[in-house]
Design goal:
- There is one protein chain.
- The chain contains 14 helices and 13 strands.
- The protein has 331 residues and is of the alpha/beta class.
- The chain has 2 domains: 37-194, Rossmann fold; 218-327, Helicase, Ruva Protein, domain 3.
- Strands 3-6-9-1-10 form a 5-stranded parallel β-sheet.
- The chain is globular, with a radius of gyration of 21 Å.
């Protein structure tokens, strides 16, 4: 009975504290037509304190969505265009010798901001990618002998183009795993496309207002952690993850030879966190199975390794996840 009262209180608290979500969505929608799923995932990443990798062909408003979101939050934003000649120092900063003072001074790089847009992350060599991924994981940067903490909230939103592979440096699987979600963005609907045309050919200038402070985001993150996750939902998460490791135990023997490696424990942690953030966005104080199903593809698609046999049969991670969700018992 006390648990029910707690959940009721938590629901009311979340109803009050999540009011800024609507304001944030309204501001982003001023510039972004459609792409509801992408905007939701950006908010989930923001509230669950996880970095996002956005993948889609050029012109689908990936960069615009990230820039608009950062404008709507009173926070520092930096965009880094990844190129083959980029160096780690261009990202994290370096030490410069001052002739006047006869000493080294530290010049911090663009990574010292709340929001980092890593545009076309797969265009920079591995050492630059590693420098960024270290900052993502540790929330700190070492320049010379000194270590500097990064500002909070710190969120990396990376984009990559899946079409062009020439002159790119694909992210290794272990590094892709550091991203909480990999969001694949599709084309807009016909009516949305017409709206996009009208919006872009008119003389009207879109002004994005700052509607949320970083302190509000940080307090919302704490509240997201309080969202109730029942043991049945925990079992559901572990069943989904274990089905990628041991498909034969879940009547999915056909995938045993097609999965080279299953999802890591990071997948379980991130499924729990993102489902809590998703429930928060939906103004709920508890997670339901539909939250897991809604967010599962984005959390899991980059965490399953496929064998040559799967690739030869055109089996994708999405196909495997669809079958897992259709097979694993829903609580």
């Amino acid at each position: 009975m006390s648990e029910q009262i707690d959940i009721k209180e938590l629901n009311e608290k979340i109803q009050r504290e999540s009011a800024f979500v609507d304001l944030l969505v309204m501001e982003v929608k001023k510039a972004i037509v459609g792409q509801k799923s992408m905007v939701e995932r950006l908010l989930v990443g923001l509230l669950a304190d996880g970095h996002l990798l956005l993948e889609g062909v050029p012109g689908l408003a990936k960069t615009l969505a990230i820039k608009t979101l950062s404008k709507a939050i009173d926070a520092k934003f930096n965009r880094i265009q990844f190129t083959p000649d980029l160096l780690p120092a261009d990202l994290i900063g370096t030490q410069i010798y001052s002739m006047k003072d006869e000493a080294f001074t530290t010049r911090k790089g663009p990574v010292f901001a709340n929001f980092i847009l890593a545009d076309e992350i797969n265009r920079a060599p591995a050492k630059v990618q590693s420098a960024l991924l270290e900052a993502m994981q540790e929330h700190q940067v070492t320049i010379g002998e000194k270590t500097y903490d990064l500002e909070s909230p710190f969120l990396v939103l990376a984009t990559q183009n899946p079409i062009e592979q020439e002159g790119t440096y694909p992210l290794p699987e272990a590094q892709v795993d550091r991203f909480m979600m990999k969001v694949v963005i599709g084309y807009p609907e016909k009516e949305e496309e017409k709206q996009i045309i009208r919006q872009n050919v008119s003389n009207e200038r879109i002004n994005i207002s700052k509607v949320v402070s970083t302190n509000e985001i940080l307090s919302a993150r704490k509240l997201v952690r309080e969202v109730y996750l029942d043991e049945k939902i925990e079992n559901y998460i572990t069943d989904i993850v274990f089905a990628t490791r041991f498909p034969e135990k879940y009547k999915l023997e056909k995938y045993k030879s097609m999965i080279s490696y299953g999802a890591s424990p990071r997948a379980s942690i991130n499924l729990a966190l993102t489902s809590k953030a998703y429930a928060f966005i939906k103004r709920r104080g508890y997670v339901i199975p539909e939250d897991i199903r809604a967010i599962c593809f984005d959390v899991m698609r980059h965490r399953i390794g496929l064998t040559y046999e799967a690739e030869a049969q055109n089996i994708t991670t999405e196909d495997i996840l669809t079958d897992i969700l259709n097979t694993v018992e829903v609580p």
